[in-house]
Write a structure and sequence with these properties.
Layout: H1 12-23, E1 28-30, H2 35-39, E2 50-53, E3 58-61, E4 64-68, H3 76-83, E5 89-94, E6 99-101, H4 106-112, E7 118-120, E8 136-141, H5 148-158, E9 163-168, E10 171-175, H6 179-190, E11 198-201, H7 207-212, E12 215-219, H8 224-228, E13 232-234, H9 237-246
Parallel strand pairs: 1-2, 6-7, 11-12, 12-13
Antiparallel strand pairs: 2-3, 3-4, 5-6, 5-8, 8-10, 9-10
Length: 247
C-alpha cells in the first residue's frame, strides 16, 4: 500500500481502514521497513494497527514488542564485509528501533542525518558494540541498475542460511525470518487461519506472504516472480479494497 520511494499513504487508506474496523477485519502493515518508519504513516492509528516490520523479524502491537527474530546466520558482520567489497554499495543494519550505517557517499550521510532512528558507525567491527539484537541487514546500491546485479550472488552465497530478498530497486535485505512466517505466528496469536488472510505485495520480500495467504494480489509493476505467486495482478490496491469492502 506504500510504493517504494513513498512515505505517504493514499488518503483512501483511512476510509478503507474504518470500513475494515466496522466489519471486524484485522489490519496489519507487513513491511521490510522499520517499525518506527511505519508508525509515521498513520500515527493516529498506532494503537489500532499491528505492525510486522523488518520483513517479519519484528511484530509490534500497541507499541509493545511481541516478536523479535535476530539475524545470526550468517552474522551481520559477514554480510557487511561482503557488501563493502562492492563499489557504490552501502550497508544498513537494523535493530527493532534503530538503523546503523556508514555510507560512503556524503550526500547519503547528509540525507540521513536528520533521521532520529539512524546512527552512524565508523567501521563494521563497531557492530559488536550494538546492545540490541540485529534483525536485518540491507544492501543499498547507488548503481544505475540498482541492486539486481548483486542479487544472484548473495542468494547463492547466503540463501541457505537466511532470507535474501529484493525489497526495492536499490535494495537487498537479509533476515532470519520472513513475512509469511510472521503472519503465521500472528494467526496463532489472534486465532485466525492463513486462509482468512488477504495479502498485497510488490517485491520478492512479499512472496512467502503471498504464497501462504488465502487470497493474494501482486501489483502490476512488480517482478514477474512476485506476480507468479499471487492469485491476481492489480493496478490499484486501494480501489480494489474499496470495491471489495463496499460489495
Amino acid at each position: 500500500l506504500v510504493p517504494e520511494g513513498q512515505d505517504d499513504l493514499d488518503p483512501r487508506f483511512f476510509e478503507i481502514f474504518h470500513l475494515m474496523q466496522k466489519k471486524g477485519i484485522l489490519f496489519s502493515f507487513v513491511s521490510g521497513r522499520q517499525y518506527s518508519d511505519l508508525t509515521i504513516l498513520a500515527p493516529e492509528l498506532i494503537q489500532e494497527i499491528i505492525y510486522i516490520a523488518a520483513n517479519g523479524s519484528v511484530i509490534v502491537e500497541k507499541d509493545e514488542l511481541i516478536t523479535e527474530i535476530p539475524l545470526t546466520q550468517p552474522t551481520p558482520q559477514q554480510i557487511c564485509h561482503d557488501i563493502i567489497q562492492i563499489n557504490g554499495a552501502n550497508y544498513f543494519v537494523s535493530t527493532a528501533n534503530n538503523i546503523y550505517t556508514s555510507p560512503h557517499d556524503p550526500a547519503i550521510r547528509d540525507w540521513l542525518s536528520d533521521e532520529p532512528s539512524v546512527k552512524f558507525i565508523d567501521q563494521i567491527e563497531d557492530l559488536k558494540t550494538i546492545e540490541d539484537p540485529i534483525v536485518k541487514v540491507s544492501l543499498q546500491s547507488n548503481h544505475k541498475n540498482g541492486a539486481e546485479e548483486y542479487f544472484s550472488y548473495f542468494k547463492e552465497k547466503w540463501g541457505h542460511l537466511c532470507q535474501v530478498v529484493r525489497s526495492g530497486f536499490d535494495w537487498i535485505d537479509f533476515t532470519n525470518s520472513d513475512k509469511g512466517t510472521a503472519l503465521s505466528k500472528l494467526s496463532v496469536l489472534k486465532n485466525f487461519t492463513m486462509e482468512d488472510v488477504m495479502a498485497f505485495g510488490d517485491n520478492s520480500n512479499d512472496q512467502t506472504m503471498l504464497k501462504l495467504a488465502g487470497f493474494s494480489a501482486a501489483m502490476s509493476d512488480s517482478h514477474p516472480e512476485v506476480q507468479a505467486d499471487a492469485d491476481i495482478v492489480i493496478d490499484d490496491p486501494y480501489q480494489y479494497l474499496l470495491d471489495y469492502l463496499k460489495n
